[in-house]
Write a structure and sequence with these properties.
Layout lengths: L6 H11 L4 E4 L3 H13 L6 H7 L2 E3 L2 E4 L8 H17 L6 H4 L1 H18 L8 H21 L4 H15 L11 H16 L1
Parallel strand pairs: 1-3
Antiparallel strand pairs: 2-3
Helix pairs in contact: 1-4, 2-3, 4-6, 4-7, 7-8, 7-9, 8-9
Length: about 200
């Protein structure tokens, strides 16, 4: 069974984070163009084919997942939906559109600011904004996973260690040198609050 067969179930998980969430398959001309743009933004480190087949993406109110994913893990859905919520928050800076036309429009309006926060410091290879956005999305997944029983404290610590290592790798342009310790402290705080 593929995740697409349970799309409604997965969308309900995402909509618990923000009602603006819509899940879709990451394929077609639009997503191919997005993959090439993402590849260019990483200076070719991430190849377009890998971006299309190996990773999820949040773009405005849309969370897109490759069709090839057999199942989706709830924490992955929560992580991507949290990015949509971050874009909604960024969308408040756009007068009128961001204020009055609903959450989905607000998420689209917030996309430019969200991208700036993600890409701004590329030349200096330290990106605290991207690190904070990713940590917020990941720690939301840990918190919800612990509350709903998807993740154990041990799994959260393992995910925090993996997150900390990945945020200081070339894929993320060495986003934050202290990512490992910061992620571990955040995981411990969430586990202690959940006990």
């Amino acid at each position: 069974m593929k995740w697409i067969d349970k799309k409604e179930y997965y969308e309900n998980i995402a909509r618990d984070v923000t009602p603006a969430s819509t899940l879709m398959v990451k394929e077609g001309v639009f997503w191919t163009i997005v993959a090439y743009i993402q590849s260019a933004a990483t200076l070719g480190i991430k190849k377009p084919h890998a971006i299309l087949s190996d990773s999820a993406a949040a773009l405005g109110p849309i969370q897109a997942f490759p069709r090839s994913f057999g199942i989706l893990y709830p924490e992955e859905i929560v992580h991507e939906a949290r990015h949509t919520l971050q874009m909604e928050i960024c969308g408040w800076v756009i007068p009128v559109l961001g204020w009055f036309f609903g959450r989905k429009v607000r998420a689209w309006c917030g996309l430019p600011l969200f991208l700036i926060l993600n890409l701004l410091p590329l030349p200096i290879l330290v990106n605290y904004g991207r690190f904070r956005l990713e940590l917020d999305a990941e720690s939301t997944a840990w918190r919800v996973g612990l509350k709903d029983g998807w993740l154990t404290p041990k799994e959260i610590k393992a995910r925090a260690a993996l997150f900390g290592r990945s945020m200081f790798m070339l894929d993320y342009f060495f986003a934050w040198p202290w990512a490992k310790g910061t992620a571990a402290r955040k995981a411990d705080k969430i586990i202690n609050e959940g006990i």
